[in-house]
Write a structure and sequence with these properties.
The complex is a heterodimer of chains A (about 350) and B (about 650).
Chain A: H1 33-75, E1 88-95, E2 98-104, E3 109-110, E4 112-121, E5 131-140, E6 145-146, E7 154-155, E8 162-168, E9 178-187, E10 190-199, E11 201-202, E12 216-220, E13 231-238, E14 245-258, E15 261-264, E16 269-276, E17 282-283, E18 288-293, E19 298-305, E20 310-318, E21 324-326, E22 339-344
Parallel strand pairs in A: 3-11
Antiparallel strand pairs in A: 1-2, 2-4, 4-8, 5-6, 5-9, 7-8, 9-10, 12-13, 13-14, 14-15, 14-19, 16-17, 16-18, 16-20, 18-19, 20-21, 20-22
Chain B: E1 5-8, H1 45-50, E2 55-58, E3 66-69, E4 77-81, E5 84-85, E6 106-113, E7 127-133, E8 142-152, E9 157-167, E10 171-182, E11 198-212, E12 215-229, E13 237-256, E14 259-276, E15 288-307, E16 311-331, E17 340-362, E18 367-382, H2 385-394, E19 401-417, E20 420-431, H3 435-439, E21 443-445, E22 450-453, E23 461-473, E24 477-496, E25 509-531, E26 536-548, E27 562-571, E28 574-583, E29 601-614, E30 617-626, E31 648-656
Parallel strand pairs in B: 4-7, 22-25
Antiparallel strand pairs in B: 1-6, 2-3, 4-5, 6-7, 8-9, 8-31, 9-10, 10-11, 11-12, 12-13, 13-14, 14-15, 15-16, 16-17, 17-18, 18-19, 19-20, 20-23, 21-22, 23-24, 24-25, 25-26, 26-27, 27-28, 28-29, 29-30, 30-31
Classes of the chains: A mainly beta (about 350), B mainly beta (about 650).
C-alpha cells in the first residue's frame, strides 16, 4: 500500500520520505495543473523551512553545552559560592575569627514561627561548609526565664548554609521581657561561643498594623479525655502568602517538658475549621485537618479561602486516639474555638 | 402561536404571517419612527413587551424588568438585538439586556416561542426575543424629524426624545436621543415605594449605504446609560449601567440562484454595570458592598435566505465570544479589618459557534410543514486563576474548561381550512448552563434569601416541547387558543446544600445549581378580538401556566390565571381606549423559592388621543390614566411582593415634521 500522506521533495533527498515508486505525492491527488503548481511551491517552501529549523535544532544543544562548560569553569575553584542568595540578613554574630550571619525571608525574628539560616564565614570572607552550630534562646522576664520551641541547627545539603526554626512564644518587650541568645560554633576541632547576646523578636500584626495577630498558642490539656495538664505549644507555619483558593496549612506541636525543653509531638492531629467572623462565621468546604507529615516533619493540611479578608483558623488539638486535648467545635452560639490562629489578606 | 409573530411597535395588531424572519432584503418602511399609534407612546420597551400574551415581566422595581416567555426567564431564553448576542452584566439580574435599548432604537420585537426558527437563538428552550433596530431604510422619504415628550404624574416620570432621519434609495441615516427620568413611584393608596427612581439616557445612529447594485452596507451604534436606578425589591441600587452596542452588516440581494438574500454581520457590545448601596439608609445596610460587573460580546453571523415555488429556506452560521466578569468587595463594620474581595463571575469566557438550517414546504394550499435544526459547539470556563481557584475549593476535580454541544430540532405542521387554522409543533433541544448557573459564586437571591453557588459540573438541560394552536378568523371576529408543554430532563435549578455555609449576612443558607431529573411547564392562552363596528374593537386575552418539578412541587415565577380586556375606539383623529387587566389568586406558588400566595387583582386603564395640524407640524396628543381606581396590588412576578404603581395620569405630546 502506498502511504497517502507521504511527502516527496523533488531533488531533495536529504529531507523527505521518498515514496516507494517515486511519485510526488500531489500526483496521487489528481489535481488541476494550477493547483499542482501551487502545491509544489508550498511543499518547496515548507522544505526550506524545515531545513532551516533542523540546522537550528542542531545548533541549540551545542550552544547549551558551551554554556554548561562555561559555568563549570567558573565554579571549579575551591571557592564556595554565596549560599545566602535570595535571603535577607537578620544580623551578624561575631564568634572568634568567624562571622556567623543569620538570614531568612523577612530579615526579622518574629513572634511565632521564624525560620533562620546561618552562613559562617572566616575573616577572609570564605564560607565554611563544615561547621557545627548550636544555640539557646532565652527570655528573661525578671521573675522567671524560659526558652522556646526550636529545632537543632542542621546543615542544608549541598550548600554552605545551616538552618533551624524558632517558635517564639513571646516578642521582645512582652511582659517587660528580653530575649537573649547563646550561640556555639565548632569548626574542625575548635569550638567557640558567645552568650547573652540580646536579640529582637518582633510582634506580629494584622494588616492594620496595630492589632496583634495570633500565630502561636500555649495550651494545657484540660479536657475529660486528658486532664493531665500536660502543656503544648501549637505554632502556625503556613500559609505564608495566603490566597483565595486552596492553601497549604502547616503547624508544629511541641510538648513542653520544662521551661527550656520542648519536644516535637508527631502523632497528634489538629482539626481545622476556618471561619470569617465578620461574615456571620462563613466557612469554606473541603478543608483538610492537619496531620503529621513525615516528609516535612510537621503537621500539614489544607485550608480553603473563599474570599480575601479576615479568617480565623479554629483548631482542636487531638491526641493519637482522636481524643480532644484542647479546643472546641464551632457551632451556633460558640463562634470560635479556644485554640485558633488568625490569617488576614 | 407557532411562529415568530413580529410584534410591531407601531401596531400591535399586525400579526405578520411570516415563516422565516427577515424576509425583506432591506427594510423599506420607516417602522420605528411613528410611535403615535400607541395608547401611551412614552412607554418603555418593557411596557411594550408586556402587552404580548407570550411575555411575562419579573419586576424588581420601576426599571429593567426581566422578560419571561412561556414562563421561562433569561437563562432559558435567547434575547438578541437584530441577531446580535448580548449578555447582561449584573449577577443579580438587575439588567436584562432589554434594558439597554430605548423604544426609539427599535422597530419590531420578534417573539419566538419554544424552538422556533430563530437562526441566531442559542442555548434557549423557552423561546427567543429578537429586538429589531429602527432603520430609516433605503426609501425616498427624505428628511423626517420627530420630537416627543411625555409626563406621568406618578413619580413625576418624564420622557423627552427627538430623532431625525434622512432616507434616499442610495443611503439612509437616522439618529436620535432620548432622556427619561423619574422619582420614586407611589403604590395604590398613596404610599411611596422608596428607591424606585431612575434616570436613563440613550443615543443611537443607524447608517446604510448602497455600495453597488444589490449590495448594501449598514451600521448601527447605540449608547445607553442608566444611572441612579433604584431597586426597591433588592438590597442594592444601581449607580450606573452602561451599554454600547455596535454592528456592521453587509447584505447582498439575490446572491445566488434560489437565494434572495445574504446578510452578514459583525458586532460588538459592551456592558458595564455598577451596583451601589451608598444611597440606602445606613441602618438598613448590613454591610456596605461594591459589586461591579461587565459583559463583553463580539461575534458574527451570516444568513442565506432563499425560496422556490413551494419551499422557503434559510441557512445560518454564527459565532460569538463573551466575557462575563463580576466582582464583589465587602466592607466589614470593623474598620480595622481589610475589605473582603471575591470574584462572583471569575472572568468567564464563552466561545460558541453554530449552524442552523430551516425549510418550510408548502405541500398544498392548506398543508405546510416546516423543519429546522440548530447545532452549536460551546467552550466555557473561568479564565482568571483567581476565579478558577475559588471554584476549585468547591469542586476540587473540576476541569478548567467545559466543552459542550447544544442544539435543537423542531418541526411544525400547519393546517388551514376555511376560517380555521391549526398548528401542531414538536421539538427537542438543549441548552448549556448560564454563566451564573455554571460559574456564579455566592450570588445572593433576595427572593428566597439563599446564596447561590454555580456548578461547573452541570449537564446540559434538555426539553421536549409540543404545542398546539387552533385559530378561527372571520372578518369581524378572531379567536385563537394555544397550548404549549415543555417536558424537561436535567432541569437546572438551585437546591439547598446543608454542608455549605452562607456568606451574605442574614441569608438562610446556600443553594447549589443541580440537574433535576425532570420538570414540566404548561402554558395556555386564549385570544379573542371582535370588531364591533369600523371604529370599535374589543379584544381580550387570558393566560394560564403551571410548572412542576420532579416531585410535583410548583416551580417559581409561574403565572396564575391572568386576563385583560380592552375596548378601543379609533376614528380619524380621535382615539380612545379603556380596559382592565387582572389576575386570579396565585395558588400554585413555590415556598421553596421564597414565594407566597399572591392575591388576585383587577386594575382599570384609560387613554384618549387626538391628532391635529398646527404651525405646519403634525401634533399627537395622548392622555390617560393607568390604575384608574388606585388599587394596591402586586403580581406573582413582583420580586418580594413589591407593590405596583398606583394611579398614574400621563400626558404625551408628539410632533412630526
Amino acid at each position: 500500500m502506498k502511504p497517502v500522506y507521504s511527502i516527496f521533495i523533488e531533488g531533495g533527498d536529504s529531507f523527505g520520505y521518498r515514496e516507494a515508486n517515486g511519485f510526488p505525492y500531489y500526483q496521487h491527488l489528481n489535481l488541476p495543473l494550477t493547483m499542482r503548481t501551487f502545491v509544489r511551491a508550498f511543499v518547496r517552501t515548507f522544505a526550506i523551512f524545515v531545513k532551516k529549523a533542523r540546522r537550528l535544532a542542531i545548533l541549540m544543544p551545542a550552544a547549551a553545552l558551551l554554556a554548561a562548560c562555561d559555568k563549570n569553569r567558573n565554579t571549579d575553584a575551591d571557592e564556595i559560592p554565596d549560599p545566602t542568595e535570595g535571603l535577607t540578613k537578620v544580623r551578624d554574630f561575631q564568634i572568634g575569627r568567624y562571622t556567623v550571619s543569620a538570614y531568612n525571608e523577612t530579615g526579622e525574628l518574629r513572634l511565632g514561627y521564624t525560620k533562620l539560616y546561618f552562613a559562617v564565614a572566616d575573616a577572609s570572607g570564605k564560607f565554611i561548609d563544615s561547621a557545627a552550630l548550636s544555640a539557646f534562646p532565652e527570655m528573661d522576664m525578671g521573675m522567671m526565664k524560659h526558652s522556646t520551641p526550636r529545632s537543632e541547627i542542621t546543615k542544608v545539603p549541598d550548600k554552605a548554609l545551616y538552618e533551624t526554626y524558632y517558635a517564639f512564644l513571646m516578642y521582645s518587650g512582652q511582659g517587660n521581657g528580653k530575649w537573649y541568645y547563646d550561640l556555639k560554633l565548632t569548626v574542625g576541632s575548635v569550638t567557640d561561643s558567645i552568650s547573652d547576646v540580646e536579640i529582637d523578636v518582633k510582634n506580629v500584626f494584622r494588616p492594620d498594623g496595630k492589632t496583634e495577630r495570633r500565630v502561636i498558642q500555649s495550651v494545657s490539656a484540660d479536657t475529660s479525655a486528658d486532664a493531665s495538664g500536660k502543656r503544648y505549644v501549637v505554632t502556625l507555619v503556613e500559609p505564608v502568602a495566603p490566597k483565595v483558593g486552596s492553601n497549604d496549612v502547616s503547624a508544629y506541636i511541641h510538648e513542653r517538658k520544662d521551661a527550656n525543653t520542648y519536644i516535637p509531638v508527631e502523632r497528634f492531629a489538629l482539626k481545622l475549621d476556618p471561619r470569617m467572623p465578620s461574615m456571620e462565621n462563613h466557612s469554606s468546604p473541603n478543608n483538610a485537618d492537619l496531620t503529621w507529615s513525615a516528609d516535612e516533619q510537621r503537621y500539614k493540611g489544607t485550608v480553603n479561602f473563599s474570599m480575601t479578608g479576615y479568617w480565623k483558623l479554629n483548631l482542636i488539638l487531638q491526641n493519637e486516639h482522636g481524643a480532644t486535648l484542647y479546643g472546641n467545635p464551632v457551632s451556633g452560639e460558640v463562634e470560635a474555638s479556644s485554640l485558633y490562629f488568625e490569617v488576614e489578606f | 402561536m407557532a411562529l415568530l409573530f413580529p410584534v410591531a411597535l407601531p401596531a400591535w395588531a399586525q400579526l405578520q404571517d411570516t415563516t422565516l424572519q427577515l424576509q425583506e432584503i432591506v427594510v423599506s418602511a420607516r417602522a420605528g419612527a411613528n410611535r403615535n399609534r400607541q395608547a401611551k407612546p412614552s412607554a418603555s420597551v418593557e411596557e411594550y413587551l408586556q402587552k404580548s400574551e407570550k411575555i411575562g415581566m419579573i419586576k424588581r422595581g420601576a426599571y429593567a424588568w426581566e422578560p419571561s416567555i412561556n414562563s421561562m426567564t433569561t437563562e432559558r431564553l435567547s434575547v438578541t438585538i437584530e441577531g446580535m448576542k448580548i449578555f447582561h452584566a449584573c449577577t443579580d439580574r438587575m439588567d436584562p439586556v432589554t434594558s439597554y435599548v430605548e423604544t426609539s432604537n427599535l422597530s419590531k420585537l420578534a417573539i419566538g416561542s419554544g424552538f422556533e426558527a430563530n437562526p441566531n437563538a442559542t442555548n434557549s428552550i423557552g423561546g427567543s426575543l429578537d429586538l429589531q433596530l429602527n432603520k430609516a431604510g433605503f426609501c425616498a422619504d427624505g428628511l423626517d424629524v420627530n420630537a416627543h415628550s411625555g409626563f406621568e404624574s406618578n413619580g413625576g416620570r418624564q420622557l423627552y426624545s427627538a430623532d431625525v432621519s434622512y432616507a434616499t434609495p442610495q443611503l439612509y441615516l437616522n439618529s436620535g436621543v432620548s432622556h427619561r427620568h423619574s422619582g420614586s413611584y407611589r403604590a395604590g393608596g398613596g404610599g411611596e415605594v422608596p428607591f424606585s427612581q431612575l434616570t436613563k439616557n440613550n443615543a443611537f445612529a443607524s447608517f446604510g449605504y448602497v455600495l453597488a447594485d444589490r449590495k448594501a452596507l449598514e451600521a448601527t451604534l447605540i449608547y445607553d446609560r442608566a444611572s441612579n436606578v433604584g431597586y426597591p425589591a433588592l438590597a442594592m441600587d444601581v449607580a450606573a449601567a452602561e451599554g454600547l452596542i455596535a454592528s456592521l452588516s453587509y447584505t447582498v440581494e439575490n446572491p445566488l440562484p434560489l437565494f434572495y438574500k445574504w446578510e452578514s454581520k459583525a458586532y460588538f457590545n459592551r456592558i458595564v454595570h455598577a451596583m451601589d448601596d451608598a444611597k440606602r439608609p445606613p441602618e438598613t445596610v448590613a454591610m456596605h458592598m461594591d459589586m461591579p460587573g461587565k459583559s463583553r460580546t463580539g461575534g458574527a453571523y451570516s444568513t442565506l435566505s432563499g425560496r422556490s415555488a413551494r419551499h422557503r429556506y434559510s441557512l445560518n452560521v454564527d459565532a460569538y465570544y463573551n466575557q462575563s466578569y463580576a466582582e464583589m468587595t465587602m466592607y466589614p463594620s470593623n474598620p480595622n479589618e481589610i475589605p473582603m474581595f471575591m470574584l462572583t463571575w471569575g472572568d468567564v469566557r464563552t466561545l460558541n459557534g453554530g449552524l442552523f438550517a430551516v425549510d418550510e414546504y408548502q405541500i398544498s394550499g392548506s398543508h405546510t410543514v416546516r423543519l429546522s435544526a440548530k447545532g452549536s459547539l460551546q467552550r466555557d470556563g473561568a479564565q482568571s486563576d483567581f476565579g478558577w481557584n475559588t471554584l476549585k475549593i468547591y469542586y476540587p476535580d473540576m476541569k478548567r474548561y467545559a466543552n459542550r454541544f447544544v442544539g435543537n430540532v423542531a418541526g411544525r405542521y400547519r393546517f388551514r381550512w376555511s376560517a380555521w387554522e391549526s398548528n401542531l409543533s414538536a421539538g427537542y433541544g438543549s441548552r448549556a448552563p448560564s454563566v451564573s448557573e455554571a460559574y456564579g459564586f455566592y450570588l445572593f437571591n433576595t427572593f428566597d434569601a439563599y446564596d447561590y453557588l454555580g456548578n461547573p459540573q452541570l449537564e446540559q438541560e434538555a426539553a421536549w416541547e409540543t404545542a398546539l394552536s387552533l385559530g378561527w378568523k372571520r372578518r369581524t371576529v378572531e379567536a385563537n387558543a394555544e397550548a404549549s408543554c415543555f417536558y424537561f430532563s436535567r432541569y437546572i435549578v438551585g437546591k439547598p446544600s446543608a454542608e455549605l455555609s452562607h456568606m451574605t449576612p442574614g441569608a438562610s443558607g446556600v443553594k447549589v445549581y443541580r440537574n433535576l431529573p425532570h420538570a414540566t411547564i404548561l402554558n395556555l392562552s386564549l385570544l379573542l378580538k371582535c370588531w364591533l363596528s369600523d371604529s370599535f374593537l374589543w379584544s381580550g386575552k387570558a393566560t394560564f401556566a403551571r410548572g412542576r418539578d420532579d416531585r410535583k412541587n410548583p416551580l417559581p415565577l409561574i403565572a396564575p390565571l391572568c386576563y385583560d380586556a380592552t375596548l378601543t375606539f379609533r376614528r380619524e383623529k380621535f382615539f380612545a381606549e379603556g380596559g382592565i387587566v387582572g389576575a386570579a389568586r396565585q395558588v400554585n406558588f413555590s415556598p421553596e423559592y421564597g414565594e407566597d400566595e399572591t392575591p388576585g387583582y383587577l386594575v382599570a386603564n384609560l387613554a384618549l388621543g387626538y391628532s391635529f395640524k398646527a404651525l405646519g407640524l403634525i401634533f399627537d396628543l395622548k392622555a390617560g390614566a393607568e390604575n384608574l381606581f388606585d388599587a394596591y396590588y402586586s403580581t406573582y412576578a413582583d420580586w418580594n411582593n413589591i407593590p405596583q404603581r398606583g394611579r398614574n395620569v400621563f400626558l404625551n405630546l408628539g410632533a412630526r415634521f
